Amino acid sequence: MKPWQRIALGTALTAAVGSSLTVAGTAANAQPSTHHGAGRTAAVAPFHGNGESARVAANKRVVRAFVQDVLNNHHGDHAARYLTSDIQWHGGSVGTVPGRDNVAGLMSSVTTSIPDIHAAEQDIFGQGDKVVVRLVVTGTQKGPLLGIPASGRPVRWDAVDVYQLRNGKISNEWAAEDFTAFLNDTGTYKAPWIQ
C-alpha cells in the first residue's frame, strides 16, 4: 500500500468511526443533534426516557388508538380517520385491499360481523415509520365475514400486524392473521393438525 493510500484509508476510517461515535453518543445521552459529515446532514431524533424516538412513540400511539377505537370500541366507521387516502391493506391469501374507503369498509365489516371483537395487545414495537403489534383477537361471529356465513360461535386468533405510517396516518398494513384458527372456530374448516 502506498503512503497516500494509507493516509486516505486512515482518514476514511477516522471519519466513519467519528461519525458513528457522534451518533451513538447522541443517542446514549438522549440529546437531539445534527451531525455534519461527508457533506451531508443527518438528524438524530430526540429520544424518550425509554430510548425510543419521538416519531416511533407517536406512531405507536396512532396504532394503539386505531386498534382501540376501531376494533375494541367497535367503531368500524371511524377507521378512515386513521388512514391515508392511498392506504394498502395486505392480507396475504385474503388479498390486498387498496384505498381508504375500501379498507374502512373492511374494518366496518369486521366490527359488524364480530360485534364484540376485542384485540388484546401482547407486544408492540416500532422502528422508523413502522409499528409491529402482536394481538390476540376474540369475539363472536354473528354476521358473514370473508364469505363465511354467521356461525354464532366464539372465535379466537393470533395476529401480528405491521403498520407503516406517513404523516401520522396508516399508509400500509400487513395483516398476518391466523385464519386457520378462525376457520376452525367458525366450523368452516378443521386443519388435520388441530386437536
Rg over CA atoms: 23 Å
Q: Which outline best applies? A: globular
Helix content class: 25-40%
Identify the strand order in the major beta sheet: 4-3-8-7-6-5
The string of secondary-structure elements, in order, is HEEHEEHEEEEH
User: How much of the polypeptide forms β-strand, as a percent range?
Assistant: 25-35%
Catalogue the unreliable spans. Answer: 1-44
| Number of beta-strand segments | 8
Instruction: Please report the distance between the alpha carbons of the first and last residues.
Output: 67 Å
Q: Which assembly state applies to the chains in this document?
A: single chain
Provide mean pLDDT, rounded: 83
The major sheet is characterized as: 6 strands, mixed
Query: What would you call the structural class?
Result: alpha+beta
**DSSP summary: helix tally:** 4
SSE topology sketch:
Blueprint: H1 3-28, E1 33-37, E2 40-44, H2 54-72, E3 83-90, E4 96-98, H3 100-113, E5 118-127, E6 130-140, E7 154-166, E8 169-177, H4 179-185
Parallel strand pairs: 3-8
Antiparallel strand pairs: 1-2, 3-4, 5-6, 6-7, 7-8
